[in-house]
Write a structure and sequence with these properties.
single chain; four-stranded mixed beta sheet
Length: 223
């Protein structure tokens, strides 16, 4: 777009796990970018509406003014647009396909988690069952490995890690404990939290829990 700012600009929101994926990815690739905080609970900015007119949501990566939307697509784009920086996805085609599958699957953590705090009664119970299935599947894929791809932090870890600060709140609404029921996932989350790119990008669980309460009020949910 003529007249647009050159370089990378990330339209994001402080607590968005999807935006945090992009922040971690940018850090892992060593790419400099400008962070642009957006308003999601009020009126969207003209820049966000123009950059993502379909979903009107973050994250959006602007590269020389051209928008790329959706967190996983942004990560794929970074690998293709900056091939001389450290890759996020594995080189092997099968490993790459597997990484893409599990990264996309992990979106269910947020989707089902939102149902947990929004719903009550039987619908919430179904959401709990769904979350147990999702976390069980992720735990099974992780197995006894240090990270999802083995000994090194990789694409799936990058994609899933931003959901970890939300899990204590999801557990409170769903009546489960990740530490107790999926200790391998809990240990993995601690390993991820020790990585600089992750530690600098995520919010503590207490802040996430406060934000969920803000969302509930915004949605008119009174416990």
């Amino acid at each position: 777009m003529a007249g647009e700012k050159k370089g990378l600009v990330l339209l994001d929101y402080w607590v968005s796990p999807f935006g945090q994926r992009c922040r971690i990815g940018l850090a892992e690739k060593g790419l400099e970018y400008e962070y642009s905080e957006q308003e999601l609970l009020g009126d969207r900015s003209e820049l966000l509406l123009r950059s993502n007119p379909v979903h009107k949501a973050v994250p959006v990566l602007l590269h020389d003014g051209r928008p790329v939307c959706e967190s996983l697509l942004i990560l794929h784009y970074l690998d293709e647009a900056f091939p001389n920086s450290p890759p996020l996805l594995p080189a092997d085609p099968y490993a790459r396909a597997q990484a893409r599958f599990w990264a996309a699957y992990s979106d269910k953590v947020y989707e089902v988690g939102t149902r947990l705090w929004k719903l009550r009664g039987e619908e919430q119970a179904r959401a709990r069952d769904d979350m147990v299935e999702v976390l069980g599947n992720l735990d099974g894929e992780l197995g006894d490995k240090a990270f999802f791809a083995g000994e090194a932090f990789g694409f799936v870890d990058l994609a899933v890690a931003p959901f970890t600060p939300w899990l204590p709140s999801y557990g409170r609404y769903g009546g489960f404990s990740v530490e107790r029921e999926w200790p391998r996932l809990a240990a993995w989350a601690r390993r991820c939290a020790g990585r600089e790119s992750v530690a600098k990008s995520l919010q503590p669980p207490e802040k996430v829990d406060e934000y969920i309460n803000v969302l509930k009020k915004h949605c008119g949910i009174n416990d």
